[in-house]
Every structure is written in C-alpha cells, then in structure tokens.
Design a protein that fits this description.
The complex is a heterodimer of chains A (186) and B (275).
Chain A (H helix, E strand, L loop, with lengths): L20 E5 L9 E7 L2 E4 L27 H4 L4 H5 L6 H5 L1 H17 L2 H14 L12 H7 L7 H4 L12 H9 L3
Antiparallel strand pairs in A: 1-2, 2-3
Chain B lengths: L16 H12 L15 E5 L3 E7 L2 E3 L2 E4 L5 E5 L2 E7 L1 H22 L5 H14 L6 E9 L2 E7 L5 E3 L2 E4 L3 H11 L6 H18 L7 E7 L3 E8 L44
Antiparallel strand pairs in B: 1-2, 1-10, 2-11, 3-4, 5-6, 6-7, 7-8, 8-9, 11-12
Helix pairs in contact in B: 2-3, 4-5
The chains are: A mainly alpha (186), B alpha+beta (275).
Chain lengths: 186, 275
C-alpha cells in the first residue's frame, strides 16, 4: 500500500530508503513546538504521534510536577505528598474529563473518515492546527475563537464555560517567566 | 512539565483538586460527616393528555432529615414549549436545566425554530452520560412541539424513556400506583390535572421526602399554564413574616408626663461657611 506523500532524505536528496528514520523538527516559536516522528519504510510514511500523544494517561509523578497552580506542593490543601496521590486520579471523572476533548475529536474524525473518506479529516485537522496557533502571548488568555468555531463550541454552553473560566482566573503568571518558558530558555 | 515559577492555569470546567483532600478528610473525623448536598426527595409526575402535557411536582426540598425549602420550585422552564421537573440533588437539577435552556435558546436564535423535545432529551443525555452519573439529576421533560405531545424521563446516567405517563423521585411508587389506575389515553384537561394532583398527593402522603404544596404546569400548543401552587397543603403554618404591630395594638392603661428641667450652661456660636 503506498501513501501519497513521499519524504526526501536530507542527506542524499533521494526518497527515503528502507530503514531510514527522518525526524522533523519545526523551529522554536512562541507557540507550542510539535515534534513529529515519521518512520519511512519502503516509501511509506506513518504519523506515529498523532492525537493519541495528547492523551494524558496519568497525573504527573511527584517530584517532577507536584500539584498546585505553580507546580509547588500545596500542603495546606492537599496534605502531604505521596506517590499514590500523584499517580492515580483521585476522582473517577478526572481522567475522562482531561481526555474528553481529544477523545471527542478522535471520534468525530474517525466517523468523518468512514463517511467521506480520508481527505475530510485531513483537511479539518489542518485547519485545527492552523487555528490552534492563533494565540496571544503566553501569560495572557487567548479566546481561541477560530478553534471554537471550528469545533462548534461557539454554539453551545457547557460546564467549561461557566466553571473555572480561565478568563476570570485571579492569578496571572509572571510575564517574563512565562515567555521564557515557552521559548524554552528557562 | 511545570516549574515552580511558571503558572499553569487550570483547565476550564470541573476542578478535581479537592477530591483527594475530601477523601483524606473523610477518614479524619470519626463519626463526623461532611455536609450533605441538598436533595429534593420528591414526587414528580407527568401525563400526556389530548391537547398537551401536564406536569406536577411537590414543593419540599430536604437536607438529610430537615426540610430545607418549603416552597421549592421543581418545574423548570426550558423553552416556551418545554418544561422540566427535576428530582435528585437540587443544585444539579437547577444547573443542568439552566444549561439545557441556554443551549436550546442559542439553537432557536440560530435557526429561528422552536426547539423540539427530542433535542432537549439528546442534549441532556450527552451531558449526563459524560459525567457518568456524578450529576444527580432525575428529570421529567414534557413539551409540545410540531411533532406532537411528548413526555420523556432522563436518568442520572443518561438513560432515556419515552412514556405517556410517569413519575420520579422518592415518592414515585405511590404516585405511579395512582397513575397506573387512572390513566387513559387522550384524556381531557380537567381529568388530567386531577389525575396528576391525586398522584402527587399520594406521593406526599406516603413519602417523607415530599410534602407541602403541589405545583402543576399545563403545556398546550397555544399556551402554558404554570399554576403555583395548585393546591396548598392543609398543614400550612401561618407564620407572620413581618413583626411590626400597628399603633394601638397595645392598650394604654395610665399616662404620666414629667417635664425635664434643663439649665443653659454654656452657649457658643459657630459660623457656618455658606460660601
């Protein structure tokens, strides 16, 4: 089975040979950098890090990323740290809510692919990626208007519009720190 | 990955930070209980009749063993032609029906049409299933739209049932007995109202969590009659909410006037600046 795109090997300027692994890295920008690894085998390119990589399987490990807004352990509210607390979700809905949007997208794309063919989700995903890049500076809250319109969230109200609205959050990150962190300089 | 000086804004929507803390606290107080949310321990009922739908509900909201609200409104407005009775946790039913109402309003503004009852049911079903029953809302949706008169029930996990008559809440068994006995398809308005009233009354009499007044909502193609209260409980207490007595309530027995003699000790004048 052949795919329609062909990747050129940077060294030899020929189509990717067997066993050659091409790693593409986009230049560092203020918005999220995306690392995509495509393994080429017989000219077939596969995207091995699609939407699944954005699924969160567990809450981060203690020591690397403790709970709390600033990443510092919040003894007053969550008690002493324990590895179990950090690894396992404390509420049955915690994981499913974190993964809800990616799961919905996957479901919708898969249905769309079955109905209309591969081109439909590909084009839509391209538009999503473009819309996701329209962001303000890191310490400011972006409205994500284009992304919302694409997803259809502009015509519905859910709990994420009422509860814990990020535009109403009382804490703001320190601007210089946030920009440096996003640029990878921190 | 988070650093200690970089702020990660929490995601919008539900925040589960306190869940671990609550679990830890449960074990700390031996015998003590965390405060329970206010439930509506209810009787709600609905009947489809010839020209539309009649919904009925009692008006008591309980918080464990105490009556928290004697005039609770359990019939919520969703759309001009759709109303919803809610049983379960009071806050959950109110918030869910508010969200549903907002979504349907947006839809009807967008498309210029009246929403259908199936749409409300589908939106509710998606929303409740997403939260796996953690939102404790048992709802009866009734409405009249272009396709006819409909009555649906939605459970907390998102289960949906379409029936001509039903009741929900803690008093549902008593109410259902009356409904099963008295229901006939295509009833007249007065008979339908009387049937629902009897059903709710049975629920009030047989269940501790239901009581006080009965509210009735009649939805027809032309209009909606929200009768609140339809029947006032005979045990209603006549508590005065104002404790101001009109002059003359207390009779005057004797009157004695003593003039107070005052001497002028010092007199001083201060000029007022009127510029």
């Amino acid at each position: 089975m052949h795919s329609t795109t062909v990747v050129f090997c940077k060294r030899k300027l020929t189509p990717v040979c067997t066993g050659c692994v091409v790693i593409k890295k986009r230049p560092n920008r203020i918005f999220n950098t995306v690392y995509r690894k495509e393994s080429g085998r017989n000219g077939i390119t596969m995207n091995t890090r699609g939407l699944r990589s954005q699924l969160k399987d567990s809450v981060p490990v203690a020591g690397l990323c403790p709970q709390g807004a600033y990443g510092v352990q919040d003894s007053l509210r969550s008690g002493f740290t324990s590895v179990k607390n950090e690894l396992l979700p404390s509420h049955p809905l915690e994981l499913s809510e974190k993964n809800f949007q990616p799961n919905q997208d996957r479901m919708n794309f898969s249905t769309l692919r079955n109905i209309q063919g591969l081109h439909a989700p590909l084009k839509l995903q391209m538009e999503y990626r473009a819309a996701r890049q329209i962001q303000r500076l890191p310490f400011l809250q972006s409205s994500n208007l284009a992304l919302d319109t694409l997803r259809g969230n502009d015509e519905s109200i859910g709990f994420e519009d009422i509860l814990n609205d990020p535009t109403q959050s009382e804490m703001m990150g320190e601007p210089h720190m946030m920009v440096e962190y996003k640029l990878g300089l921190l | 990955m988070a650093l200690s000086n970089v702020l990660e804004t929490p995601a919008a929507g539900f925040n589960f930070d306190n869940a671990a803390r609550n679990a830890a606290l449960e074990g700390l107080f031996d015998g003590g209980q965390t405060p329970k949310p206010m439930k509506t321990g209810t009787t709600i009922a609905g009947v489809v009749f010839k020209d539309g739908v009649v919904l009925g509900a009692d008006t008591r909201a309980t918080s464990s063993e105490v009556v928290a609200d004697k005039m609770c409104a359990k019939i919520h407005h969703i759309a001009p032609n759709i109303y919803c009775c809610g049983a379960g946790t009071a806050a959950d039913t109110q918030k869910t029906t508010d969200l549903l109402s907002s979504n349907l309003t947006i839809f009807s503004l967008n498309s210029g049409r009246n929403p259908r009852v199936v749409m409300a049911v589908n939106i509710l079903q998606d929303m409740l299933y997403r939260y796996r029953g953690q939102i404790g809302a048992n709802l009866i949706l009734g409405g009249v739209d272009c396709t006819g008169n409909h009555l649906y029930t939605v459970g907390p996990y998102g289960s949906v049932n379409k029936v001509p008559y039903l009741s929900m809440g803690s008093g549902d068994l008593a109410a259902l007995g009356i409904l099963e006995d008295g229901f006939k398809p295509d009833m007249e308005l007065e008979k339908a109202k009387e049937l629902v009233r009897l059903a709710i009354h049975a629920g009030i009499m047989s269940d501790l969590g239901s009581g006080n007044n009965i509210d009735i909502c009649v939805i027809t193609r032309q209009r909606v009659d929200y009768i609140r209260p339809y029947q006032v409980s005979e045990y209603k207490d006549n508590r005065k909410t104002k404790y101001k007595y009109r002059p003359g309530t207390t009779a005057v027995l004797t009157e004695k006037v003593v003039p107070l003699k005052l001497e002028v000790v010092q007199e001083s004048m201060q000029r007022m600046d009127t510029a």
